[in-house]
Amino acid sequence: MAVFTRSYPMDVDDELADDLDRISALPDDLLHVILSILGDATMVTRTAVLSRRWRRVWTHAQKLSFVDKDPKIRAKPGQFGGFVDLALAQRGDANIQSLSISMPTSDSATPEQINDCLRYAMQHTIKTFKLFSPYHSSNETDDDHPLTILELPSNARTTSIELRLSSFRLRLPVSPSARYEALTELNLRSMCFDEEEAGARTLGDFVSTCCPRLRKLEIWGLEKLTQLVLRIEALEELDVNYSSDLRKLDVNAPNLRVLGIKLFIISLPLINENSNKHLVVGIVAPMLEEIDMHIWADRLDMHIHDRTSVRRLRNLGLRMRGQYSCNTDYGLWLLKNCPNIEHLDIYLRHMFSMNGLIDLMDKGAPRLHKVRSMVVKTSYLWPEHRFVTCTAVAPDVSWPKIIPLFEDPNTLASHPNITMDFLHEASIIGFTGTDQEMYLVSFLFGCSTSITCMTILPESDDNDDPNRSQLLKIPFTGHGCWHFQRDKYTWKRTQYEGAQGKNCAY
Amino acid sequence: MATGSGAAAAAADAEEKESGSRMITLTSNEGKAFVVTEASARQSATIRSMVDDGGCVDKGFPLPNVDSKTLARVIQYCDEHGNKEAHTVDERAALAKFDKDFIAELDADKAFLYDVTMAANYLHIQGLFALTTQCIADTIKGKTPEEIRTAFGIEYDLTAQDEEEIKEEDTHA
């Protein structure tokens, strides 16, 4: 506590001071901070007309965000691009920390203007550059309407670049001296490549040769990218998503920690005897800790060398049974071949209606001695099967049986021997109180003596939800207390073991 | 040996306990002394680093760039954020409410708002600096130039030549 009186009488001088232009007396640095908070380039540049003092203050603002908000009211095509060009030209040689340009229509800027922006940004943007370009409604990419080419300049000082260039073709710098020395993060979306063009540089070659400090690479929906060969010493995180032309992913990255792959490379229709889209994945990453993988390919050859460092498997798709299942063996293969997994997050994808218990032991899954936590998700693929998402955190999981939760409670009842001795926490989402769901709750309490916490998120937000009284009647819940909130029911075990808890609710 | 290290540990413990309730004197440029808790003073990264460097805690810290009125208001903020907990939802809501009232009062007196902003900048009180600069930015947001001039009392002093330049820029934008 401060030991002084805190009363602040307004005196007459203060009232007068209000009328003086004190803001203009603030130092430039401080005004730059304020303009950076504004961000929006239209507002920031508008301060140029306030007074003489303000004419050039904005040109040193460290963050500018150009957004074409009302493309329809702009009279001429490229007018927004012209505004961007002019604003950037007025900044002269001043550097900027963060620049983002977002153009929602193809009329916003001409290709020349976008190329100008790219050149300016690579030269002057120090930290973050983002460019979102128009998305053309017509996807004509035939010979008569080739995609417009944008060129990435040969050099950049920027540390983080995100480009979403829908319906443009990106040409990477071919100069042998091209360098993106400072670049640590690169995120490319939706653009098209033409790697067969004579003399063109491939994306893999560009990042491997020109970006020595690249730590994080994310690509999303790139077209005509057929192969990605990466040799990057610094790379720690790689995310390859939805690039359906990819046939070869070959990564050698001694510092890679996190690998994410989401690829759907399949022939349509789904059941095609002659399906032959073949994907080859080769990963050499001795420091790899996390794999987040969902691949669906007609044919998949996957080689991940030395998996002893892998601790986490996320979103691991296991397509359980059924004649439609494609080559998904990588799921089980990873389970078997990553001996040190601690966190497991699997997604059971059921293509077909099926009955009974899935016991992965039958499919040769190993005992995963080191797993400390596990999340199991199932999906609703067939409306008649209400799968319930069940999350379990259990230390020392020795590969418990995975139970698909069907409408038919007999599925569980017919397996009275299931126990979950190490189950500590369970949560159920979207609880509606059907008999099966109630049965599931009873089942979880019944098969585990170690449970300490249960969370249920009900669909109903009714304070008189009749399910509450049902929950109170479940055997074993007497070892703890239910706490009913409008949107969350929590059961916690009474802390002192031995002292029988009262069945209470509040 | 054992007793020696035990005594040292006890002394360290005592110091640890004391540091929570230690008082620190901050002196405004008008020579007025304000005594605050160390927790309150540590809201300022500038003072925090001086304290941690074993600086002149006993002698107090003179702040030649801050006047008494501004310092008093800054300390009001630091007391609230330094001495109160923000662990529970209720505690955080109480702090958010304090911030809201605090900035609303400053916003009504723009000249004082700038003084507090400058002081927060000088003393590196991150939360307070973010609060005041955001408030000034909010005043600019969504306004026409004329409205901004009125809000801040900025005098229109552009010359004919400036106006010509602006017209030129406008035709492109």
TrEMBL record, chain A:
Listed InterPro entries: F-box-like_dom_sf, F-box_dom, FBL15-like, LRR_At1g61320_AtMIF1, LRR_dom_sf
Protein name: Uncharacterized protein
Domain At1g61320/AtMIF1 LRR: start-end pairs: 96-270
Gene3D superfamilies found in the cross-reference section: Ribonuclease Inhibitor
Domain F-box: 23-60
Domain of life: Eukaryota
SUPFAM superfamilies on file: F-box domain, RNI-like
From TrEMBL, chain B:
Domain SKP1 component POZ: 23-81
One biological process term in Gene Ontology: ubiquitin-dependent protein catabolic process
Composition bias type Low complexity, residue spans: 1-12
SMART domains from the UniProt entry: Skp1
Described function: Involved in ubiquitination and subsequent proteasomal degradation of target proteins. Together with CUL1, RBX1 and a F-box protein, it forms a SCF E3 ubiquitin ligase complex. The functional specificity of this complex depends on the type of F-box protein. In the SCF complex, it serves as an adapter that links the F-box protein to CUL1.
Family recorded in the similarity comment: Belongs to the SKP1 family.
Designated name of the protein: SKP1-like protein
Organism: Oryza meridionalis
